[in-house]
Amino acid sequence: MKQTRGMTLLEMMTAVAVVAIFVGLAVAGVQTRIGGQRESTATRELWSSALRARQLAISTGQPVRIVVKPNVLQPDGRKYTVARWEQMKCGDDVSTPDPWGVDKCPITACVNTTCRDTPACCSQTGPDIVIPATMDASKINNLCFLPGTGRPVLQQDCMKGLLGQPGKIAEMAPKDESIQFLFTSKRAKSVLMVEPLTGLSSVMDCDSLAATTSDATRKDARLAAACAVAPP
């Protein structure tokens, strides 16, 4: 009667090693997909936040600024870099804000602080957008939509005292390439392109067909030019 041959220790160790390699590759693939989804979600939410900030600045007559802040404690007990919009009060004093005025938006005491540090400086704030560790969204920090007009500037003080000077406002408007979202993963960078007169924005990926095609009829020249510029 023929005997059945069992596995040797070396063969068993080899089989275990092979299985471990495949499991490791599978886990890495899942983590990469999850990381990519988080980056995409954060990018879309930042764009949505910019649209909402503009809308509020027009409808409320108060400047609305996007603030990016590191090490913010979240409900899961961990700290992350987060972004959110902040609708800043206008007037002479945080306790008794006055109606809108060219020289009173935002309140002076609130210019160099955030509403996370000084909640009384804001009428309302948006939800926290968690920025993945593989993503750098710092260039959208201090993007401010001006009261009444929704025009965009990259200024922490939201052009306080200069709201009646269109030339100064135009100088501080973000250029096409100003707001870039960078990734340490293999993902290509994205740009948030904000129209300097209207404040309307769009977010585009630098590996999209519109940015990379050689077909002039399908190419977005502004996007391609913005993507070609190194991060400011």
From TrEMBL:
Membrane-spanning residues: none
PROSITE patterns xrefs: PROKAR_NTER_METHYL
InterPro entries found in the cross-reference section: N_methyl_site, Pilin-like
SUPFAM superfamilies: Pili subunits
Superkingdom assignment: Bacteria
Record-linked Pfam families: N_methyl
Name the record gives this protein: Prepilin-type N-terminal cleavage/methylation domain-containing protein
